[in-house]
Amino acid sequence: MDNDDKKQLNLDLKPEVAQGTYSNLAIITHSRSEFILDFAAMLPGLTKPEVRSRILMTPEHCKRLLHALTDNMGRYEAQFGPVDLGGEPKNTFNLADFAPGNGTKS
Questions:
Q1: How distant, in Å, are the alpha carbons of 6, 39, 61 from that of 36?
Q2: For 75-90, what is each residue's pLDDT tens digit?
Q3: Which of 29, 64, 84, 85, by CA, is between 20 and 30 Å from 74?
Q4: CA-CA distance, 40 to 46, in Å (whole number)?
Q5: Are 22 and 42 within 8 A, CB to CB?
Q6: Any residues with CB less than 8 A from the CB of 51 and at least 6 apart, and which?
Q7: Residue 74: is it exposed, middle or buried by C-beta count within 10 angstroms (0-12/13-18/19+)?
């Protein structure tokens, strides 16, 4: 694709959004019509993860995001080397780990 064929996208990035939000935990749920991505932070001293941001997407947009992340991770690793996940990756966790009685509030 020539540079002339690429579409330009102008974004409005507000200062309070530009500084970003830290997340080290993503919880993904879905229904037939949407994906819900909750981005949370598990920090020392907190009794449970705090959801910092929630994104709702259609399945089609979620799949586009998956492809974009896969593409970008491939380019990142080509430039900086493989990202080590420290052994066998754990993709999911048991929500019961965060149930009342386990040091968390409901």
A1: 30, 10, 11
A2: 999 999 999 888 765 6
A3: 29
A4: 12
A5: no
A6: 27, 38, 39, 40
A7: exposed
CA-based nearest residue to 31, from 62, 53, 69: 62
Query: Which range has the top average pLDDT, 22-26, 63-67, 94-98?
Result: 63-67
SS3 61: helix
Task: Tell me the whole-structure pTM to 2 decimals.
Answer: 0.71
Amino acid in the structure at residue 66:
L
22: tokens are 């830290």
